[in-house]
Amino acid sequence: MRRLRWTVSIVLAVVFVSTGVVAQEDDPFAFYEGIETSRAEDGGFVLGSPDAPVTVVVFADFMCPHCQTYVETTHEFIDTFVRDGQARLEYRLYPIVNPTYSALTAQWAECVEVQRDGAFWPAHDMLYNLAHAGEVGPDTPETLAETLGLDVEKLDACAADAAQYVTDLELGASLGVSGTPATAVRLEDGTLGWPFLRDQIFNRGGLPLNLLTEIIEAEDVSSLVMVPSPLLASLVTEDAACANPCWRGIVPGETLLTDALEIIRQDRQHVEITETSAGELDALTWRRFDSRLNEPNYIIANAEGAVDVISLVDISDYGLGEVVENLGDPAQAIGFGTEDGSAILYMIYPDIATVVMVLTAPDEVLNEDSLVVGAQYLSSEALATFLEDADAVAWTGYDGFDDYLR
Description:
Blueprint: H1 2-15, E1 37-39, E2 45-47, E3 55-60, H2 65-82, E4 88-93, H3 102-115, H4 120-132, H5 140-148, H6 152-159, H7 164-175, E5 182-186, E6 192-197, E7 200-201, H8 209-216, E8 225-226, H9 257-266, E9 270-278, E10 280-288, E11 297-301, E12 307-313, H10 320-327, E13 332-337, E14 343-349, E15 354-360, E16 371-378, H11 380-390, E17 393-394, H12 401-404
Parallel strand pairs: 3-4
Antiparallel strand pairs: 1-2, 2-4, 3-5, 5-6, 6-7, 6-8, 9-10, 10-11, 11-12, 12-16, 13-14, 13-17, 14-15, 15-16
Helix pairs in contact: 2-4, 2-8, 3-4, 3-6
């Protein structure tokens, strides 16, 4: 019965090829014959010559309908650019669609490669075909094993602990992947970023072949790639070239707002840049392209036209403990409750004119994992005004949470 079901799946796959599902060869390895396969240092699945100057990275889920459609473009890309060494394809397992089978199909795909070198790629095609035909189920490991010449018991045992998808999810999260498919680009030096074409950042969806072609054939591929830099990274990492309260080369009390505007404009991550002036430029606001909050970032100037305050707001991937590890304990803190029972805490570092904003959820005790959601970098004058008006109290650690609230 299973063998008959697999035969029906193959027929369905051929019928559906016009909608994006890959037609399966009699020999599932045939399409990939002659193309080098490998694993990245962190385990990602790579197809193509290691000498290729650029790598297209696809984050996808076998159970995702849009991914099942995009796989046809993936095959066209392989035929056009990977087969002759112009580019490589890197596949990242990003199981987020189906609570039962997204992670399982990722584990099965990983484990076929464990048993047989190069088997991941034909398994990749088989899983897409099966998923599109509604044939993914408990007997899928047996189907994979029979077709690819594997031991199904070893496949099942391996899948119980296979965790490459966890690594891939973490990589995607660091890049800001929010759905599947997503198409990123890895440069020769390993830098990973989003395609930036025709004044647009393509951080969602599968990139069509004509735009992939623009990237591969560009004289300077890096000019078409936007490499994200976390908005609040300076809170958790040292930057000798621009130490707090300097941010991206903008120094409160020194940098003119007109110069800060040019720095903001030159960074492709910044969108919706708005200038405010009353005769002279006195403030600007902007958003990061993938911001998860509706609040804008802003910079305001003092009477002399220099930057007075830089205010950055976004949901970061950092906990308060990471900030304390990098910057040390704050000198003071003050917090304000919100209507939903959460609180925003302002952690004050007067020696570096920096204020860190931390969110606590309703009924959550302040701790190392409390989420960092913003920062303010101040001139000495703005810091003095802030401290005068804040009514903050001395920092006594996480246990002092109630004392900080106003």
